[in-house]
Amino acid sequence: MAPGADWVDGAEERFAAQVARAHQHARDLESLRDEVDALRGAATSPRGEVDVLVDARGRLVRLRLAERAYALRPASLARLVEDTVRAAVASAERAALALVEARCGADASITAAVRADLSAATTLA
User: Fold this and answer.
1) The whole model's pTM is what?
2) CA 61 – CA 36 distance, rounded (Å)
3) CA nearest 45: which of 23, 60, 59, 63?
4) Cα-based angle 61, 95, 55 (whole degrees, multiple of 5)
5) Element (H, E) at 53
6) pLDDT digits (tens, 9 = 90+) for 11-60
7) Which residue, 29, 28, 72, is CA-closest to 48?
8) Are 66 and 48 in contact (CB under 8 A)?
9) Which of 53, 101, 102, 111: disulfide with 62, CB 3.0–4.6 Å?
10) Does position 6 have pLDDT exceeding 80, yes or no?
11) Which residues face 43 on adjacent strands?
12) Contact 92, 40 (CB under 8 A)
C-alpha cells in the first residue's frame, strides 16, 4: 500500500459527512436568525404614560400613549418616548443574546460576535 493510502480510503465518505454537517450548520443558523427576528422587546414608562414594543432590530412595532401622556409638555413626552424605546431595545437585545447563548453556548464565536455588536450599538447610542 502506498504511503498515505489510508487517508484516501474513506475520503469520499468523510467529505460527504463534512458537507452534510455544513448544510446542517447553515440550516441551524437560518433557524436561529428566524428566531432572533421574531423576538420583541417591550417597555413601559415608570408611570405608565408610554408603552412600546420594538422588533429584534429595534424598529418600533407599537406605541401606546395613556391619556395622562397628553398632559406632559411635548419635549417631556418626546424624551419619555425615547427613553422607553431605548429600554425596549435593550430588552430585545438581552433576549437575542440569551437565545444565541442558549443555542450556541456562551463561549461560541457567534455569541461573542453578537455580544460585541450589542456593545458597539450601546456605545454609539
Assistant:
1) 0.76
2) 15
3) 63
4) 15
5) strand 50-55
6) 888 888 999 999 998 998 899 889 988 999 999 999 999 999 999 889 99
7) 72
8) yes
9) 53
10) no
11) 52
12) yes
